[in-house]
Design goal:
Layout: H1 2-7, E1 19-23, E2 26-29, E3 34-37, H2 40-43, H3 52-62, H4 75-88, E4 94-98, H5 101-113, E5 119-123, H6 132-137, H7 141-144, E6 154-157, H8 162-168, E7 173-178, H9 194-205, E8 208-212, E9 236-239, E10 250-254, H10 275-290, H11 293-309, E11 314-320, E12 323-328, H12 333-343, E13 345-346, E14 348-351, E15 354-357, H13 365-382
Parallel strand pairs: 3-13, 5-6, 5-7, 7-8, 8-9
Antiparallel strand pairs: 1-2, 2-3, 4-10, 9-10, 11-12, 12-15, 14-15
The structure holds pyridoxal-5'-phosphate.
Length: about 375
């Protein structure tokens, strides 16, 4: 802790444990304690730690050709773009690769400027990243206030409120951006018809509809993309987190006519689509398919949702797939998280009374059972 404080900036606070290795959904700290990892690098390590397919693909790639830049093509970048295109169901979809969720949303913001308009509607309490453009889209006052002035022309309306969104969208709006489920805000699920309504309003006004699937993408909700349940086709999808299975990789996918907005020279990234990160992403997609992980997500999710709802002190269980939010009857989420860590399970508390659970998608049912035991005990001892 002292070394952290002496060498790292103060923006995160000081961690209390140091993790040194992991296998599947179990991580080990530097003094030999093990933990069930039910946060997975903040909804990122979709295949858990040290998955053999990722280890093999990444090791082979780094030993062959580690980096080329986008001056040159590479088989991995082509294959991954083709796979993502296929997953969208749109042959016209085109992909831009970057390194993080914030960068994917920056790319979407820049793409929307190419419509010739600049106004944007986003939602209150949303999280789209910390860079100045992504922060301008983010709807959390505590994160925005210290960094004003932010980008102008962005209006934030309450999440899930179709009428407010309808009022805010005009013909001058370039894009609307929403998370299919708000992750950082505490796993907030919108009403069933919300995304469909947004599609209708955006179509009527000629506005790009962007779904930020950074947290809800790559199988996290039991579908490839967190919006799929709605049957709606967006104009832009942003991805990161699970895409690289733990390696830094983001993507912006532009669908339909939106895929024609960028011209050569409009945007770029030195590392975006790096052969090693894309090798990991290809291993992620292939393994999810081969190991039938999307079906597994639904099974483990059903178990966790049912069991968590029975724990005294839990007032609501929400989310989809393995992105689960719990509200507690007291503002003790941080204390419960701390007690869970002491008992051997990692989770986090995005709010005073809110817990978020986002394990690897291949977490076993037995590990889920063990987690329920630890979490129940932590709740009992903290309450
Ligand atoms: N968008 C969403 C929905 C997120 O949950 C996050 C991160 O939590 C981001 C964007 C930003 O991603 P990154 O931290 O990779 O920049």
């Amino acid at each position: 802790m002292k070394r952290w404080q002496k060498s790292l900036l103060d923006n995160y606070g000081t961690p209390t444990i140091e993790l040194v290795s992991g296998k599947g959904s179990v991580v080990t700290d530097s003094v030999g304690n093990t933990y069930l990892d039910f946060l997975a690098g903040i909804a990122t390590n979709v295949l858990g730690h040290a998955h053999p397919a990722i280890v093999k693909a990444v090791s082979k790639q780094v030993a062959t050709l580690g980096h080329v830049s986008n001056f040159y093509a590479h088989p991995n970048v082509l294959e991954l773009a083709e796979k993502l295109q296929k997953m969208t169901g749109d042959k016209n979809a085109r992909v831009f690769f970057c390194n993080s969720g914030a960068e994917a949303n920056e790319a979407a913001l820049k793409l929307s400027r190419k419509t010739g308009k600049y106004r944007i509607v986003a939602t209150k309490e949303s999280f789209h990243g910390r860079t100045m453009g992504a922060l301008s889209l983010t709807g959390q006052p505590s994160k925005r206030e210290p960094f004003k002035p932010l980008i102008k022309g962005i209006k934030h309306v309450p999440f899930g409120d179709s009428a407010a969104m309808k009022r805010a969208i005009t013909k001058k709006t370039a894009m609307v951006i929403v998370e299919p489920i708000m992750g950082e805000a505490g796993v907030i699920v919108p009403p069933a018809d919300y995304l469909k309504n947004l599609r209708t309003y955006c179509d009527a006004a000629g506005v790009l509809l962007v779904f930020d699937c950074v947290q809800t993408g790559m199988g996290r909700t039991g579908d490839w993309f967190g919006y799929e349940y709605s049957g709606v086709k967006p104009d832009v999808i942003t991805l990161a987190k699970g895409l690289g299975g733990g390696l830094p990789l983001g993507a912006m996918i532009a669908l339909g006519s939106a895929s024609k907005l960028f011209a050569a020279g409009d945007h770029g990234s030195t590392f975006g689509g790096n052969p090693v990160a894309t090798a990991a992403a290809l291993a992620v997609i292939t393994s999810i398919e081969k190991e039938k992980i999307l079906t597994h997500v639904d099974d483990v999710s059903d178990f966790l949702l049912a069991e968590l709802a029975l724990i005294p002190g839990v007032t609501e269980v929400r989310g989809a797939g393995l992105l689960i939010g719990l509200t507690l009857d007291k503002p003790m989420a941080k204390a419960v998280t701390k007690r869970c860590q002491e008992l051997g399970a990692l989770i986090n508390a995005p709010g005073e009374s809110i817990i978020r659970i986002a394990p690897a998608l291949n977490v076993s049912l037995r590990q889920a059972q063990k987690f329920i035991g630890i979490f129940s005990q932590a709740m009992k001892e903290t309450n």
